[in-house]
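Fold Annotation — chain and its backbone

Encoding — discrete vocabulary of local shapes
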Amino acid sequence: MMKRFALICVLAAAVAACTRKNPEFCTSTADCMDPAKPFCDVNGSFGDLMNDCIAAPMDAGAEPDAEALDAPPGGCSPGAALACIDGNLTTCSADGHTTTQAACPLGCATTESRCLTFAPSNGLGSALADAADQPDVVLPQGAKIDTDLGLVETSAGATITVKSVNVTQTGGPAIRVFEASSFVLDDLTIQGTEAVAFVAPGRISVIGKVTARGVGAVAGPGAVTTGAPCVGATKQSNPSSLTSFFEGAGGAGNATVGGAGGNSSSSAGAAVHTSAPLSGGCDGGNQIDLSSNVVKRGGGGGGAMQLVSLESVDVSTHGFVDLGGGGGDTYSGGGAGGLLVVEAPVVRVDGAATGITANGGAGGACNIAGADGDASANPAAAPVCGDHTGGDGGAGAAPAKDALTCHAPPGQHCGVSQNYGGGGGAAGRLRVATRDGTIEKSDAPTLSVQITADTLVTQ
């Protein structure tokens, strides 16, 4: 496309070269003074030249198609939507005389000049709308978040200002929702009792390891600690007794049921099948004494996280999200992996060094705590000591394991201990909703989590 120049040179005999403004050159509609050519074709959309004053383009038998012009006659209101055609939204620029164009990831609305959008789950719609007024946010490597305080800090303890709001849920923990026009998340540790969400109209990029997990008995943000069927059953032990058998505590449930404790068939936590409310993994069952005091704690559940973007969520470079459950203390159940909800037109997990994991923690046994679910495809391993093995944690589609139950003859017991191992915690879940119900993957990322994919409902 040729560009019309602003100046022309006219040579006259015996006179030096001179210049004058070309009356058909324009940078906005305001430059076009000829009533016969009142519109500025900034991009060359309607002729052979860019920056050219032109007559009004006409639809057959219709009025001038002002919405298709670079600016309507007399200019336009800065920021106003002018047209949405073939998946591209044209809006009025800040100068009021030119326009900008951007692709609509979900396409154009049919009755209005706007991009299609969607309503995020778990009550995050208002926060997403507000996020458009916030700056782009880059959280540096080593940043930390406390969801209860809404506090974001660098690795050195300096405060990072990020707007957040608190969203309450019925039947689930509160959600600490962070807002920005776009996010870049590097290595990041998230703790607290509230779940966490990041919402942005622009891209959310995960380029480092984002951790919101259970560690030992400490639950991740938004985990379920008590009062739910998915929590592993508490069991009673009496270390001073030499004649009684005691069951191992149950592993927590999430994607599947948890593992049963040793010498027990009913101590496992139940499976969970919903992503609303946004809740993390459940805690493993504790061991208590005869006075109901907790003597050995179950593993903490993995955290709950939601990522919402109107453009895309990209996990790349060394990007990783880990929502693993904690391992149970001796004879206690493992914690379940957590829940990640991602809602965006496009979701990409790109690279062998990237991934999403929510492995369950192992049950404890043999006076040894079970391993935490880690950021790999491998199940967390339970201690082994002959007849008193704990249950391994669940990983990906693999269910949590029951602790070993000994079938000794009447009047006898197994091994040297009468306290059986705890059951393993179940793996966690990932719910993804995109424009076509798929996740774009390349170079074999690690995905050790139960995945449910949905199609976004546009509006």
Observations:
- The first helix runs from residue 125 to 131.
- The first strand starts at residue 2 and ends at 3.
- Residues 2-103 form one domain.
